[in-house]
Structures
1.
Amino acid sequence: MSRLGLGLSLYVGVLTIFLLAPVAVVIASAFTGAEFVTFPPHGVSLKWFAKVLGDPQFVVPLWNSLRLGVLATLLSAVLAIPAAIAMVRYRLPGADLIQAFLLSPLSLPTIILAVGLLFFVARIGIGSSLLALVVGHAVITVPYVLRTVLGVYAGINREIEEAAMVLGANPLRAFWLVTLPLIRPGILAGAIFSFLLSFDEVPVALLLSNTDTTTLPVSILSYLVYNYDPAVAAISTIQIAIVIAVLLVLERVFGVKHLLFTSR
Amino acid sequence: MAAPTSVAISSAPAEATCRPLLWLCPLILFLVIFFAGPLLLNLMESLRLDKGAPTFAEYTHIFGDPYYLRVIAQTLIFGIVVTAICIVLGYPLAIAVARLDGTGKALLIFAVVVPLLINVVVRSFGWMVILSRAGAFNWLMRALGLPTVDVMYTWTGVTIALVHVLLPFMVLAIASTLETLDPRLEEAARVLGASRARVFRHVTLPLSFEGLITGSILCFTLTIGSFVTVMLLGKTSTMIMPLLIYQQLTVSSNWPFAAAMGMTLLVIVTAVLWLQLQLRRPRWRR
């Protein structure tokens, strides 16, 4: 902290408290022994965790969210990886315009996409099915996978691929043995981002899910509208734990510092 | 981030046109159908095309009603205020991120990024626990013998919670450009006799202009498109456009109106993004 000077160090301390306070109070409230959310919490107990983990009202949406995140990420990866490779490998006419279009879902408020998708699924008759949710989330997550893979692939030394082909590997073998291992960090980081985005997304899930497919954030939101008790804190704490675990994996494979350069 | 796309190896001409299209097509088709398609449907719904000739009735309804005009104005002002607060709070934090290295840097980035990844519903709930009448903040105020405050269901409360949601975006955007800034430039200015304030005004600030713009546009567009935080911490007087769209859709089942409001929001966001493209070429960097 010596590089910052006293004033800036103090400021960083205060802002860090501001950034972490809402998360800290949620975790603290989850371990309360009381019947209400009070501050400071009274007593220490795990009863609220036991309550939510035995309550299908929370457990079913938790599984739905995990499943939805994985499916949307798989779909995004299948669509984005070949597209990213093509964009780096070949000089296409209008490449900038194509890339701008492919990344444009990033800039759009998801509420507008959610409303449009609601009209769309109503018209083509797939209703609020799991398929509609997977497609809706993939629209949101695919630009992130595209961008991370583009960034990593554009940065690697392409001569290695050529060398493999000169030495007799067919394009498929060169891709599998050379290209894929080289871009794996980009794919993993993009996939983890994609999963986290889907796991956190509210507007599309709120408008397109039904009681069977509802996601964790949507169920917490609906519960909060009518209730205000430590059960919400407990299920939120479980969600925070999942996200932090995923973030630690991300740090392992990619380095959190790189988030600086992948966030728009 | 604009990834360089000009790297290309020599390939046979036929391959060069066929294969990239084959690899790009699934994604392009997917987004045309499931991204452009829904937006087009939204436009059609707002013009009530399924009931015959297009009508602008929904739009004249929005722009002729003082209440809806107020909601639009509130949304824009809210976006500007949240963005301004994020700039003021975020800039020094971004300087700290750029200056630190090693463990200190990793920890600070972690502290900035963790809230970004925690669900906005959970964070709003956290702010309810802090800001409610019997919440953590008032408990602290009472412990210190200070008067308590009541900011739940006010603009103040909503603004605090949304600044918390968007501050990480601003910090990361500014820090990204500050990282690339050569520290010797600031040192040179200092050595040549410029005061700290002058160095900031004439060296640091202009060189971080792009990050500042990127962060501000991102903050603004995300604020005017947000609704979970406002839904949980606000009330009817803190109505903003996304919440109105949701309400019209679910409570009133007025789809054409919700669609027209959505198109209005889309036009505002597009205009702001266009403005960003114009500002991308700052005069002083030439």
Note: The domain at 79-255+268-285 of chain B is CATH 1.10.3720.10 (MetI-like fold).
2.
Amino acid sequence: MSIRRPVPVANVRAPVLLGTLLLATLPIASVAAQELDPLSKLDAPSKFTVQLLVDSAQAAGLPSRALMSTALEGIAMKVDGKRIVAAVRREYSFLQTARASLGPVGDEELTAAASVLEAGAKPAALVAFRARQNGRSDLEAFTIWADLITRGVPKEDASTAITKLWQDGADDAIFHSLWNNVQTDILQGLNPGTALQNRIRETPGRAPPGPGKPPEGQQENQSSK
Amino acid sequence: MTEPKVAILIVTAALLVPASRGGLAAQLVSKIDAGQYSVSDGVLPMSTFRVSPAVQWLTPYAHVTARGSAYLTDQQVQLADGIVSGTFTSPTVYGVRAEMIGNASRAVDDRSLGTDQVDVQTRVHVLFHQHGGVWFGGGVARPWRIAVISSAEVADAGAWGKIGETTARFGSATMTATFTNFSFSKIASLGDSGSATTSAASACDVAAPSGVASSTPLRALFSESAASVDACSRQSRFADLEGSVHWEAGPLELTAQTGHRFGNAYDVTPDSRQWSSASATVWLTDRVAIIGGGGRQPALPLRGLPARSYGMAGLEIAYSPMSKSAVPVSLPHAVLVHSFEIHTAPSGLQKIVIHVGGVETVDVMGDFSDWSPLTLVRRGRDLWELSVPVSPGVHQINVRVDGGPWMAPPGIPTVRDAFDGEVGMIVVQAPKSDR
């Protein structure tokens, strides 16, 4: 009489489990490799051009992250490679122009100023922002400026209003309040230009606290740190 | 399937999930209702403390829901009913979407160990600009443990319309009309007649005596002997016409519905001819609501459940509340982000807070996420939150609801992006210590 020896269950299960884990990990490893290169979804020529522009920006001291962000946005929106390259090239150009207008400022200021130029403002309008007090950030002003132009406020009107407020020492709260009032009026049907004209009259400029304006080119941008 | 195989399958599935990128914007939501429940059907206790938990797994094109209720009797928890439901919905193409629904449910009462039912149904839904629609569909309902009733063919059609917006002063109201037809075979037996002198054959006659079904001993429904030689099969048919109004304004939600059942006296008991009910929900916070309601429900012949009057009052608690749908079909939710806020959390992360009601998923993406979607977590009835690291500076951000189109969030400056779309702009200030 033979006694059938039971097969140790654990010995059978372990290789099966390990094999399954290995197989399951393969696609993850593949995906992880792709994740290392965020531009992997671009076609080769477009990817090459974008990388070239990013490298050029780094060499020129421009915020290359903004260019990469534009490319990644295009990829996320499933835009074709040519349009992405064109958008990155345009962004590069705006960053160059912004720096020429503003002087040596931080990456955040340059990126925000580039968005104002992209909205349609003239580069000369940015020059007024070269002068600023210590601790004063122009990010809110640039953001509101770009928004007003996008909403249909005439470019000249928007530029004049924002520049005037900036020179009068308006702080972030004043810029935001102006934007809030104007967009409310526009939503209620008022012409965008008229809405800005009406609201700018009732918006007070305010002298910022602290020391006087430093010489041009020596501004310190706190928010970029 | 043996336990090791199940374990391997689960491990494999869990490992494969991260490999499947995109389209996995799933969320688990849940709620629990607890309160006093009174009913007059003679089956459940007259008045009892009742608890109804529900959990739902949501993706843009599939929902899986499990819910049930139990009541407390003699210091013991007694299961009343439970249902597991799955709905798969196609994308909307030219305002048309298809829906496939499967339900498995059990109702427990004093007369039996419980009745089970499996439903499968398909529907076609035509939408009119998110403010109205019509649908029609059909399916099969298979009751189990009820010996005298066959599978039922179910056909339904309906229409809905919505006026106002949730954010408006007087809120929004949704009106729904539904017509549902049930057709099934029923075994008529001596017991059905209510009289021992009436033969089964006469019970099969079309002209059945009025009120005969109401006098049917309920136990006969569950008795195998009902399908004996003294019985015959009879085709039964009835149709329900229902109308409902759901009004939602601020923290208040009111729902009222009424219905009428068409069919001959053999198939429709007099107490199920007409019914009405109403319920109210008052949200005290984003996660806690007072609920109350009452009215009359018609009999459910496929479940062997009689008509009943009921009343209930209690609390609803939901860490991640489930949407209350005013329309009995799956809707692509209207995109209406009520508000958007971003502020610095104590951890140093930026906390994104979005208010949008009646949706299943909310995603954001922007330069801070390298334009990869980040799914927000539902924290209240219409409250969605996410904490993310965002460096100081100007950032672009977009939001989408239920996997729909990306759009600029409301209440923040907006610019045209490099690809002719719109994108929101946020300014994140540096921490004061860095200045």
Note: Chain B touches chain A through 36 residues (CB under 8 Å).
3.
Amino acid sequence: MLALWILAGLGVLLLLYIAFTYNRLVRLRVRSDNAWSQIDVQLRRRYDLIPNLIEAVRGYAAHEREVFEEVTRARTQGQSATGVRDQATAENQITRGIRQLLAVAENYPQLKANENFLALQEELTGTESKIAFARQFYNDQVASLNTLIQSFPSQIVAGWFRFRPREFFDIEEPARGPVTVQF
Amino acid sequence: MYEEIARNKRRTALVILGALVFAGGLGFLFSWLILRNGLVGLVIALAISAGLSLWSYRYGYRTVLRAARARPVTHEEQPRLHNVVEGLAIAAGLPKPDVYVVPEAAPNAFATGPDPQHSAIAVTEGLLGTMNRVELEGVIAHEMSHIKDRDILLGTVVATLVGSVVLIAEFMLRWFWWGGGMRRRDDRGGGEGFLILAAVGVVLAIVAPFFAAMIRAAMSRRREYLADAQGAMLTRYPPGLADALRKIAADTTPMRAANNATAHLWLNQPSRVPGEGVHWFESLFSTHPPIQDRIRILEEM
């Protein structure tokens, strides 16, 4: 009789553990999804800014056609990317392209002094750092989720309910340091 | 971090309870001295201070912002500030706080509000003028950590309650000064009881601000170090805040909006006196750890 009670108690404990772990997995998955949509919002914002930047620079340096085409191509790639890794590759290309465009703009004092251009530059810099912060938050969430999915014994519960580890979003860090780089 | 949030909520409840007991005791004492019946004053004082506490919990941050003469700014007016605040809100996983600017030349900043959903970050014009983007990120990250840990809840409630205590104490001091003088000339009796009353009032008026200062000093120093560390974790770049603090330490512009009720909310203790560092009297009410220590710890990270 006693053994039966002990067995029943252990069974209840086991069920509680499974429910608890399942809930934690769901919570982390929802958080990762939310974090990813934050990245998405900022990436879209940057896609919207790129045509303005190209327009602004083209007015002064129409001959830099190669750079314009490259950035436009990267933008299309980013918009149609599926999967975290593809997205990261495309975004790195966009980041490099934007830096190149801003470097070109550096040669035209008139453009650099233009108020609209300065505002655009601030939005680009701001969006780039927001992408970096969103990525940081996303990767933190993914790290917690993956740890739970891969460690014992939670991996058993994760396996039953088909939770899969997520990919980290690896993009280049914005330039920082004692020398502030002005593009 | 979750322990910090729980601890701050607990302390806020304690501070409010302390304020209730303090006000109730005062009310009881005065009404017993005047009416020989303590209950009336006790009930009135409890009702007033309970209302005040509730109000300071919900709306105290608006008063704090108004006391600093902070003005809300749009994204168009201050794009860099807005972008930095939004970026760090994303990094901390919080909703974006409202953004305010304080018309002061001294570089400084503070955060306030009952919870992250109703929070505000205010920076001075001096801060916007002297900090580059990386340093601004360091400062805003520090404030964002205060928001995340609910330091702002405790800080705002303490600011409004302490503000009221100081206000009431000053009011009583003045009332006894002028009212007492007139009554004595009238000489219509009650002189002895009134003198006791006046003495108690004067003692309270003197003790209350020190009492308030002690509460604040106890709550604020450790959490400044903590917010520095958490801020550095948000930006992943401790030198940003360290450079900002160095600039703030080198700046000796006095702050007009500096007052004892809100000093603990600011990034660094504001000073009303121009020149090197903080005036000796203000250091009695010291709310922040020495800025050089904060810089050193950030550099060692």
Note: The helical segments of chain A are 2-58, 65-80, 84-105, 109-113, 115-150, 154-160.
4.
Amino acid sequence: MTAPATSAFSAEQLTDVRRLQALYPDPRGALLPVLHMAQDTFGHLSLEVEEYVAGLFNLSPAHVHEVVTFYTLFFREARGRHVVAVCHNLSCHLAGAPAIVAHLKQRLGIDVGETTADGTITLQSVECLCACEHAPMMQVDDRYEIGLTPEKVDRILEGLG
Amino acid sequence: MMSEKILTRNFGRIDSHTLTAYLETGGYAAWQRAQAMEPAAITEEVKQSNLRGLGGAGFPTGTKWSFIPKNHAGPVYLVINADEGEPGTFKDRYLLEREPHALIEGMLIAARAIRSATGFVYIRGEYVEPWRKFSAAVREAYDAGYLGKGFDVVVHRGAGAYICGEETGLISSLEGKKGWPKVKPPFPAIKGAFGMPTIVNNVETICHVPHIVNRGAAWFAALGTKTQGGTRIFSVSGRVRKPGIYEASVAITLRQLIDELAGGVAGNGRLKAVVPGGSSAPILRSDEIDVTMDVDGLRNAGTMAGSAGVIVMDETVSIPEALMVVARFYAHESCGQCTPCRESTGWIYKMCHRIVEGHGRKDDLDKILDVAKRGAGTTICAFYDGAVGPYISYIEKFRAEFEALIPK
């Protein structure tokens, strides 16, 4: 996904920004929710988007940059249309997560942290997603995919356009 | 009695997340009752119940509530820690998805006790489905008039950072900053979110509150041990036959939990080690599992109850490899604020990695132990102390296995 030349929210979204800011004793409390909104809208949080969001909060772009770079769910560069994040923490490791990661790398022809050439999938290896009873597991966009085997991974990948 | 269901009693119902189902099983009756109680009487009831924080620290909940200054005139905030992230723990995900109204009702009661008009529920960013389910329940509670009449709930999504599960890191994040923990004192009860007195409680802790108000402190206290009341939800994973959540008295032993509830050890069937309370809890050997799972029982066994995330390892598991995975986690999640934590977690991971790869050096194990022991207690928050637990216990209890990997 590429950001529009000028990153700006619609009038409706701006109303939503004000509503979110009013929920907190200090409007800055809404920074994370608004950054989520910005990422959903513009695809990723470029320096330009950071500066735009900073303006909505009367914050310095440096403050917003510090926040964006701290959290793993904020992307500073274009990601694939789908993000596949395999848990590699202890319970998933014991259940075979390394083989799942290896299978995904081989199948997609990319390394962890990379995006397929056609821009479909970004592959990540992440810390505990707290679904250890279903290990090994991964998150695909908003969904948890559980009890993974290489065959199940293939079926999931085939469903991703 | 060992597996009495209180928090999870409705989990068998497919509609357990709805207001209708919650009302059918006695929901919001405790809130009715609590409205006729003085705030101090609610806090006293919770104190008497021996309810202890179930997010990790195990602090007595009623005592925490009593720290809110009595003469404070401004706002007081109730913050729910739903930033579940301790490796091996998944109970709050179930509560948010399947019993969201218990959390809302518990918040109403807790808010009355601490005189709060606003509650924030901080849900980890990866928990999209729990966030949707819980948000839907909040809308139902507004429509039904439980919320919006003196108490409001704001649902807040995190953005991926384990440290935001630490209560002052969570507060920083809620304020729109990176999730750096804050120096204590002042404790949040004196100066917390947005500079105001704040109580931060775990999801499961607050879900217990309606039941305590309904059935009484004595009933709840009697479910547990002398110093901790109630049941709690154990998350069991790793090499067991039936991984999953199990609600049981905190007086259950680790052996009963593994053998009777979780179906026994999988893998080769022979137990090697168990992490009893999330990855920050020191590891136990197979001969150390006849301990009760309450806060003090596990503390006396040299480990901790933590978040009750139980990770089971059979004899085929490599302990050095397990430590490498755990050390990678702490290196990744250190927030970088305090030097001992930022530097040690990174270097210790590198050393664990080279040991597993067969390139360990003769003095690596002693160096890890030395660095771990000297750094403990020197940082702003408990994160590094949590990392030190596994570093020391894995190496001291399974040293021969590490030494076997290091070239002579």
Note: The radius of gyration of chain A is 18 Å.
